[in-house]
Amino acid sequence: MMMGEISTDPALECPVCALCGSAASRVVLRACRDRLCGRPGEFNVVECLVCGHWYLRPRPTAEAMRLYYATDYYTHREGGGERRWLSGLMSLGKRIVQAPLALRQGRAVERWRPSGTGRLLDVGCGSGHFMARMHRRGWDVAGIDTDPVAVETARRSVPDAVVSCGSIEDADLAPQSFALIMVSHVLEHMYAPQRFLKLALSLLEPAGVLVIRVPNAKSIEARIFGGAWRGVEAPRHLHHYYPTTLSMMVDQSGLLVREIRRQVLPMSLSHSLLFSIED
């Protein structure tokens, strides 16, 4: 068990649990490394002994984390790196699955929002596949992403959309101005997920819907592969949610959980297999 330990490395910090604020934890995944880009360092995933939330501890500071989103990360694919071939493979796989993923997400939106109209914000919009599909279906779409290359691609994909580069905290967004906010594989990267959720709530119009997609830390795939599970992605994935803790975090933010659905992503499974073979 760890109780409030500190790090002597200035590039690392030891956070408390983002869900309940406790520092009491135990290691559940030890010495996880950057399997994707091959950056240096080993990181532990810990479980909060109070609420059960899983998170990275210690973790890189926000400034130090920039190293792990360098140009050979698969969403920033210029340049090289020790794992350039794998980053390229993942970038290709992402492009292959983006269209059917956007289709599946679009169908989910239409189930939650049957009127099919209104303003939609895609947080972490990437190259804009989901935005483009929803725009064609009559939605007034906007997007935001931290990757300037992806933002330019999204702007070309949906010329009518306002696509911002940066964080949602810095964007000029009016309160209660969106019928739906999509947050797909973003929440696990955030240093302050509770703050983000409360901000998202303030941006939703009455009866608006927030859709969150995250890896499930207690999925069968995660249990089988352990530290080789694709969803670990140390150290970029700062939080590892599962239905119980995600629901608790959403509830604490003032939002109401309407539905939880589980999905199997073939690309994730293939990468987990590859990482386990490398071990």
Concise synopsis of the structure shown:
The protein has 279 residues and is α/β, with parallel strands linked by helices. It has helices spanning 84-112, 129-136, 148-157, 193-203, 220-225, 243-252, 266-278, and strands spanning 2-3, 12-13, 24-33, 42-48, 54-56, 59-60, 119-123, 140-145, 162-165, 178-184, 204-213, 239-240.
Question: How would you sum up this structure, described in words?
Answer:
It is a single chain. The chain is of the alpha/beta class and 279 residues long. It is 31% helix and 22% strand. It contains 7 helices and 12 strands. A hairpin with an 8-residue loop joins strand 3 and strand 4 (42-48). It starts with a strand and ends with a helix.
Q: Which tags fit this structure?
A:
12 strands, 7 helices, five-stranded parallel β-sheet, globular, five-stranded antiparallel β-sheet, 279 residues, alpha/beta, single chain
Number of helices: 7
- Weakly predicted, low-confidence segments: 75-82
Percent of residues in helical segments?
A: 25-40%
**Main beta-sheet annotation:** 5 strands, antiparallel
- The average pLDDT value, as a whole number, equals 86
Radius of gyration: 18 Å
Strand content: 15-25%
- Structural shape: globular
Main β-sheet, spatial strand arrangement:
1-3-4-5-12
H/E element sequence = EEEEEEHEHEHEEHEHEHH
How many beta strands in the DSSP annotation?
A: 12
Class by alpha and beta content: alpha/beta
Distance between the terminal alpha carbons, to the nearest Å?
27 Å
